[in-house]
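From: lab user (bench 3)
To: helpdesk
Subject: output format question, protein + guanosine-5'-triphosphate

Hello, I'm new to running complex predictions and I'm not sure whether the block I got back is the full result or only part of it. Here's what I submitted:
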Amino acid sequence: MKNIRNFCIIAHIDHGKSTLADRLLQTTGTISDRDLQEQTLDDMDIERERGITIKSHAIQMDYKEDRVDYILNLIDTPGHVDFSYEVSRSIASCEGALLIVDATQGIQAQTISNLYLAIENDLEIIPIMNKMDLQSAMPEEVKDQIVDLIGCDREEIISASGKTGLGVDEIERVPAPVGDPNAPFQALIFDSVFDSYRGINAYFKVLNGEIKKGEKVKFINTDKEYFADEIGTLKLHQEPKQVIKTGDVGYIISGIKVAKEVKVGDTITRVENPAEAIQGFEDVKPMVFAGIYPVDTDEFEELRDAMEKLQLNDASLTFEPESSAALGFGFRCGFLGMLHMEIIQERLEREFDMTVITTVPNVSYHAYLTKDKETTIIVNNPIDFPDPSMIHRMEEPYIKASIITKADYVGPIMSLCIEKRGELTNQVYLTTDRVELTFNVPLAEIVFDFYDRLKSISRGYASFDYHPIGFREAQMVKMDMLLNGDMVDALSALVHKDNAYELGKKICKKLRELIPRQQFAIAIQAAIGAKIIARESLSALRKDVTAKCYGGDISRKRKLLEKQKAGKKKMKQIGNVEVPPKAFLAVLKLND
Ligand SMILES: Nc1nc2c(ncn2[C@@H]2O[C@H](COP(=O)(O)OP(=O)(O)OP(=O)(O)O)[C@@H](O)[C@H]2O)c(=O)[nH]1
Ligand SMILES: [Mg+2]
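Helpdesk reply: Thanks, we reran it on our side. This is the complete output you should expect:
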């Protein structure tokens, strides 16, 4: 046990965690040069394509120094704010963290928030300055920042480059795990993945005692018992073992097929001579809600199947059935943020071949009625918005946003935040040129286009992080969209009273661009209750696709007509109007 080192890599997005992990895998010979690719641990297609890590990834390495054999258990974590719950779980199974700071960018918002997570869990922090190979690196300045932040010595900071390699020997600074090898077996589940053949694999860290293959184990919170059919360690591929001992990290396969039976944060123990439950993690709270519907209404059951499978790989996805007059049966889903929502939609399309419509996302509101002012009604869906005449008050979620930027951009960023109904609570100069701004802002205002706008007004020199801080009273209204007088429930949105007119106008305009002209005129209207607040109209068009087929070849004409019909299948029929699926997300694209 004294030769085990458990550590994770944490940093702001894109500071080079996965690339540095590659170097560690290479120097320890965990992976052959032939298998090595860039960011080897990002093994999902979407991760590779987008160049970002979405899921934490644990891997074991062997390392020898001064004739001592070490076992290194490494966890690479994602940097994007939507996935910070992945980081918090990884941290719980480690004794140390490599804190990576990009030498060209310095400390950014998630550097700080991930560092705090690590400190709360008493992890030994090893500061690393990465990308030192780049011309634009500012080693002295960034060193100052790191010393300021964590109060370490300048000499402790390791200069590294994911391109050239890093002193693995420094990882010895991570303390060995503590635990009692003779105590009853007690392990913490920190992650799980789904394998369609073998069911759910739970990843755990042994805090006390040991587990042998074939033993009867119990998952304490779910109160279920299983046989440890297979246990092993997490190399690049799983490596079955007979026993996993105190301090080590491993996986267990016990034939579980139902997602609910494996709860991340649960404790595994032996049925005979059991240990106590470990304090687990808090459930993840979704931040954004939206409906997901199959384009083809007959595919509802297939969609359910796909969602259930996806949930096995991504426990943070929540969903429950709902129905819409316009779209039929679908699900109301909860996401951790907009990137998470985008990724779920993309995975449904790629991994399950489902074409889906996502409705206007919204946050979760609280409503209180005049007849009962105390009971909270949770409104996750515009359809559940109570009749305005019965509402006593509405509340919306607020967040504390922290933005780190260059002094030059403070002005424009403040105006953006004020436009978003934010209030500045703090402004600190970290150095003469770098400022940390703290705002309280309604969550609804930042989930949509805030991040993109922040990036464009600061030319990329602003980083952003946020935490929920509870609910505050707000004037919310439900805005409906009408196509030729028919209300389309899937396009309804809950908006702040002051934004309604502006937004209504913009959405009408956007829908006018997105809906193709049809054989009759279409009126596009936005309304609050019975009051129309904006209107656009789309004029009629008759498109005769066979017009260019002179000559009498009937088979060619038929072919063209069929092609047109197939093209139409991708549209959604609302009343008599055909609407393309992307129109349902019009609200998100208002500034394109
Ligand atoms: N020049 C240079 N580029 C680097 C270095 N390390 C990483 N990069 C580049 O920086 C980009 C981001 O690297 P990743 O390793 O994916 O960063 P990450 O921290 O894992 O990102 P997330 O997991 O999405 O938070 C890639 O384009 C890398 O090629 C380095 O030491 N030098
Ligand atoms: Mg990564």
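A quick orientation on your result: The chain has a mean pLDDT of 87. Let us know if anything else is unclear.
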